[in-house]
Amino acid sequence: MTVASGPVIPNFGSGSSCEVNNGWFCTDWVRQHWADTLQPALFQHIELAAIAIGIGFAIAFLLALVGFRFRLVDPPIGIISDFLYTIPSLALFQILVPFTGITLLTVEIALVSYTLLILYRNMIEGLHAVPVEVVDAARGSGFTRIQTFTRVELPLALPAILTGLRVATVSTISIATIAPFVIAKGLGQPIYAALSEDVFKTEIFVAGGMVIALALVADGLIVLLQRGLTPWVRA
Amino acid sequence: MKTFVDAFRFMADNPHLLLEKTGEHLELSGAALGIALVLALPLGLWLGHLHRGLFLAAGVSNVGRALPSLVLIAFGLTIFGVGFWNNTAALVVLAIPPILTNAYFAIDTCDRDVVDAARGMGMTGMQVLLRVELPLGLPFVLAGIRVASIFVIATATIAAVAGGGGLGQIIVNQASYGLSGVVAASLCVSVLAFAAAGILTLVRRTASPSHESLT
User: Fold this and answer.
1) How many CA atoms lie within 13 A of A155 on its CB side?
2) With a cut of 0.95, is the ipTM above it?
3) Which long-range contacts (CB under 8 A, 24 or more apart) does B208-211 make?
4) How far apart are alpha carbons B179 and B170 in whole angstroms?
5) Nearest one of B90, B96, B98, B95 to B70, comparing CA atoms
C-alpha cells in the first residue's frame, strides 16, 4: 500500500484561518492546490479509467464474438465474469499484489475484470435480441455470414452495447478511486491523503466531488455518442 | 507465489484474529444491509405497484453507481465523525440504489393482464401487491438484494480507513500484519462476498424454481 506523498497533505500551521481550523470548504486551498494536486490527480484518474475501459471493451467484444458464435462457451464465460465481479475490489488489488507487484498493471487487471461482466452481458444480450426474421431476410438477400454480422446484427445490438459501456464507464471511474491503496494515482489519492491526515474536509469534498462529476460527465458523453450512433432509438 | 502460501500460513496462525474481524465485518455489513432493506424495499415495491416514480427509481441507480465507495466513506467521516455509524450511513447509501431500483422494476414490469385479473377477482391493492406482484417479481427483487450485499461487504473493507472494524483493518494495516496478513484478510473478504452471493442465489432458486436462468 502506498501512501500519497508530496504537497497534498495540508499544512495546518501556516495556511489561511479556514485551513488552520479545517473549515467545511476552503476555496483558497482549492485555488492553491489545483495545479499541483487536483489537476494531475484528475488526469491520472481519466487515464486509469480510460485504459481499463478500452482494454475491457476489447476483451469483452472478443469474448462476446466467441460466446455468440459458439453458444456452448457462453455459460462458462458468464460464470467466470460473474465470479470476478463478486470479488471485492480492495481485496482483488491485494490478492494480485504478490503476482504483479505494486504496479499500474495490478490496478488495471482489477479494473478490467470489473468491466468484463457488464460489457459481455450487454453485448451478448443485444446480439441475441436481434430478431431471427431480420437475420433470415439478410441471409436470404445474399449477405454472407460476416456481412450479416457487421451490417445487421451489430448495428441492431449497438444500443444494448452502448448501455453496457455507460454502466461500465461509470463504475470504473468510481472503482478507480480505490487505486491509491496500491499505487499513488488518481483522485482517490488526495482523498486518501486527507483521510490519513486529520480528515481535511476541503480536500475530501473537492476530490470526491470531482470523481462524481467526472462519472456524470462521462455518462453524459456516452449518451450523446449513443444519440449520434443510433438515431433510431429515442427513449 | 510465496506470499500466497504465507497468507494461508497466516490464516492457520491467527484464526482468532480473523474470526473476530470477520464477525465485526458481518456486523457492520448486516446492520447497513438491514437498514437499507427497511428503507428501500417497501418504497420500491410500493412505487412499482403505483407505476409511479420511474424518475426516482432510475435516477437513484444512476447516481448510486457514480458514487465511489471511498468518497461515501470519506463524506460520512467528515459529517458524522469517526465511528460505527458514519460507516453504516455510508454503506446504507450504497445499498439503497440496487434494492430500490430492482424492487421498483420487478413490480412495475409485472404482466398487466395478471394484475387486472387479480383486481377483477376483488383483491385489494395490498393483496395484489403481496400475493400477485411480489411473488412474480421476487427473483428480480432478490437479485437487487444480492448486488447490494456484495457491494456492502466489499465496501465495509474500505470502512477501516475511517476507523471502522472488520477485515479492512488488517488490509489497510500492512505495517502490522505484513503482506501475508493483508492477502489472508482479502481472501476472507472474498469468501464472505461469495457466501452472501451464493446464499441469495439459493434463496432465489428455492423461492421461484421456474426462474433458474435469471441472473
Assistant:
1) 14
2) no
3) B208/B135, B208/B138, B208/B139, B211/B139
4) 10
5) B90
* Domain extent at residue B100: 2-211
Chain B residue with minimal CA distance to A176? B68
Domains in chain A: boundaries = 26-229
Instruction: Provide the domain count of chain B.
Output: 1
For residue B14, give the CATH number of its domain: 1.10.3720.10
pLDDT band at B43 (very low <50, low <70, confident <90, very high): very high
Q: Which of B66, B75, B186 sits opposite A91 (nearest CB)?
A: B186
Q: Tell me the CATH class for A26-229.
A: mainly alpha
Is B69 within 8 Å of chain A by CB?
yes
What pLDDT, in 10s, does the model give residues A87-127? 888 888 888 888 888 888 989 999 998 888 889 989 998 99
CB B72, CB B90: distance < 8 Å: yes
A1 chain-B contacts, CB cut-off 8 A = 172, 174, 182
Q: B78, B93, B170, B192: which to substitute to probe chain A, counting the most A Cβ within 10 Å?
A: B78
A114 touches B at CB < 8 Å = no
With contacts defined as CB-CB under 8 Å, which chain A residues touch B163? none
Q: Is A194's pLDDT higher than 70?
A: yes
Is B22 within 8 Å of chain A by CB?
no
Range B126-133 average pLDDT = 89
Q: Considering only the beta carbons, identify the residue of B1, B174, B189 that sits closest to A91.
A: B189
